């Protein structure tokens, strides 16, 4: 892990200037000076708590994107200044978003992983009519009943995670007539994911024989593993988040229970922390570092060259979110938030380092893109955690409509 500064404020300034440029700026009228200064991006992400490790990766991803943009001349001839702060929790996230808008005059707010904090920031963005690109949260409710004009979501939602893994389980005859026991993170993301899982079980003749809500700060899973042993399910399904996943995986392996595990929510760092032999089964993925697409592999190499390690999926998603925002500003020739919102919702396509380009749907502001499964390899075949998971084929297939795995308008409940 990098030694990120985890104080309240982490400022990454990449603005370049000279004395001559400074003198020229002073001679400009006030309104021109405002347009020639750096574009200010407020980046909120958890840097502490059970999602903090993911937030560190997100910070590195957005940093790399901003540096590449600035090295290429910036946006609209202006440099990009990304200011990253620890969102901590929903209350703090909302307070910091409001301050970034009112006092710090940020042009756009970007980031976040926690669905609960995203909901809070989204409400602030809507009140202030400020564009908020939510990079890492997955709760369907953010694209559903809590959607708003100023919030755009770049990660895949819970329904997609369930559909992608569910189709893989169906191919392996692990759904029809099977009994599932789930463990669910006890906050909005987990509750939302459980609802999506229940819909899948009901539609595919599977039985949910037990579910336990898991506090986000819990570290001892033994009472719940004993409940699994008593329930005798066919499959143990994890709706967990952050460091809950590796903590459970390690303890479950120690018990040696015969019931296979799968997950409806996964981040690369979860597998890395759990290690070979502890993480098993099939999981969803929005992106993985072995994706055999030239642009993706080049990103991985640039990231390794700068930071000395392989990017995790949150590094990728904050990277592409910053690149999407830069393209929107260039295409509109503006940082005006109303113009940016209209452009992002127009169906414009974006290169997100996958085989197929992505676009935001106009009616829920979800980024429509390919998804994948990753399956744990036999530990005897793994010599490094980077080899831990095998990436599956893109879903939907190359000739299928990308929206097949996403919630429909009727299912969503979004009303913009």
UniProtKB/TrEMBL annotation:
This is ABC transporter substrate-binding protein. Pfam families: Peripla_BP_6. Keywords: Amino-acid transport, Signal, Transport. The keyword Transport applies. The keyword Cell inner membrane does not apply. Residues 38-377 form the Leucine-binding protein domain. It comes from Pseudohoeflea coraliihabitans. InterPro entries: BCAA_transport, Leu-bd, TAT_signal.
């Amino acid at each position: 892990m990098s030694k990120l500064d985890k104080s309240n404020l982490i400022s990454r300034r990449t603005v370049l200037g000279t004395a001559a440029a400074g003198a020229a700026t002073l001679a400009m009228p006030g309104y021109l000076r405002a347009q020639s200064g750096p574009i200010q991006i407020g980046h909120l992400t958890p840097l502490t708590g059970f999602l903090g490790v993911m937030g560190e990766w997100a910070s590195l991803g957005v940093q790399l994107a901003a540096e590449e943009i600035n090295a290429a001349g910036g946006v609209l001839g202006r440099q990009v200044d990304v200011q990253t702060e620890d969102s901590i929790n929903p209350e703090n996230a909302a307070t910091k978003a409001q301050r970034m808008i009112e006092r710090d005059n940020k042009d756009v707010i970007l980031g976040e992983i926690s669905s609960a904090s995203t909901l809070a920031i989204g409400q602030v963005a809507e009140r202030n009519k400020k564009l908020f690109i939510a990079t890492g949260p997955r709760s369907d409710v953010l694209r559903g009943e809590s959607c708003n004009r100023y919030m755009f979501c770049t990660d895949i939602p819970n329904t997609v995670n369930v559909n992608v893994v569910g189709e893989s389980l169906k191919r392996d005859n692990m759904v029809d007539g099977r009994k599932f026991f789930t463990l669910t993170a006890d906050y909005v993301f987990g509750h939302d994911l459980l609802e999506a899982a229940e819909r899948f079980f009901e539609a595919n003749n599977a039985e949910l024989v037990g579910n336990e809500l898991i506090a986000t700060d819990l570290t001892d899973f033994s009472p719940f593993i004993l409940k699994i042993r008593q329930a005798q399910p066919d499959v143990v399904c994890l709706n967990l988040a952050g460091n809950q996943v590796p903590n459970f995986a390690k303890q479950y392996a120690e018990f040696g229970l015969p019931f296979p595990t799968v997950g409806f929510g996964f981040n690369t760092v979860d597998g890395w922390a759990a290690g070979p032999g502890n993480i098993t089964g099939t999981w969803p993925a929005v992106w993985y570092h072995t994706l055999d697409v030239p642009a993706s592999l080049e990103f991985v190499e640039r990231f390794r060259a700068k930071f000395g390690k392989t990017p995790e999926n949150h590094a990728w998603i904050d990277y592409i979110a910053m690149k999407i925002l830069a393209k929107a500003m260039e295409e509109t020739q503006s940082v005006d938030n109303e113009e940016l919102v209209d452009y992002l919702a127009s169906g414009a396509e974006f290169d997100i380092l996958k085989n197929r380009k992505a676009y935001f749907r106009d009616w829920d502001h979800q980024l429509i893109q390919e998804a994948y499964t990753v399956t744990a390899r036999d530990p005897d075949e793994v010599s490094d955690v980077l080899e831990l998971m095998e990436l599956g084929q893109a879903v939907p297939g190359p000739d299928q409509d990308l929206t097949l795995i996403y919630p429909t308008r009727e299912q969503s409940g979004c009303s913009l």
